[in-house]
Amino acid sequence: MRRPLQTRSESSADRMLAATLALLDEGGPGAVTVAAVARAAGTSNGSLYHRFGDRHGLLLAAQARALGTIELETATAFAEADTEPDDEQAVALLAAAAVDLFVRHRGSLRAFLVDAADSEEVQAASTAFTHRLAGTVTGWLEQRFSCGVPAAQSAWRLLFALGASRALFEDDAISPTPLASGALADALGRAVLAVVR
Questions:
Q1: pTM, rounded to two decimals
Q2: What secondary structure letter does DSSP report for 166?
Q3: 1-53: what fold?
């Protein structure tokens, strides 16, 4: 008999986290209120408080979900790149994946890497996340291209800077001439190759 309750509870928690991430995408952290999340998830305020404790607990859980999803998608992109024997094609795949990830997860990245800087817990989790990504990217570049740590770290910083700008700004705010994601990924791939070769 308890199994259905747990399933409903997990489903309710999933809906609350999905609603939180959708609200972050639409309006940033200010849009995430207990009432707005409960309404969007079709649950009650009390259910949210019971599951997450408070708004801060909800944001921490949403951060864990969002950053975990990004890490999983990053691992998938690297696994695909590992199967590509051509170095240029492998880097092109990764550049396209990076641009796509930063655009698709724009709201979460902005909320958890920039806007929520007033929470030490959020900052610590975000820093750990970026360091894990840095380790993944630099480790792969060092192995694939037998490049040194400075070159791999420079390439990572290039990727992260471009990705961060995609998360923070709409393309037309950066340049009067919008750049299609494909063209951006191509240029990024060439830049990374130039740094590590």
A1: 0.86
A2: H
A3: Arc Repressor Mutant, subunit A (1.10.10)
Give CA 115 to chain center in angstroms: 14
pLDDT tens by residue, 97-112: 998 898 899 899 888 8
Contact 75, 136 (CB under 8 A): yes
**Measured between alpha carbons, how far is 177 from 81 in angstroms, rounded to an integer?**
30
Write the pLDDT tens digit of every residue in 115-151. Answer: 766 789 999 999 999 999 999 999 999 999 999 999 9
Cβ–Cβ under 8 Å, residues 63 and 119: no
Give the CATH number of domain 63-196: 1.10.357
pLDDT of residue 8: 53
pLDDT at 57 over 50: yes
C-alpha 37/C-alpha 40 separation (Å) is 5
Distance, CA of 44 to CA of 34 (rounded, Å): 9
Neighbours of 102 (CB within 10 A): 22
How far is Cα 84 from Cα 176, in angstroms, rounded to an integer?
A: 35
Residue 140 to residue 189: CA distance in whole angstroms: 14
Question: Domains of the chain: which residue ranges?
Answer: 1-53, 63-196
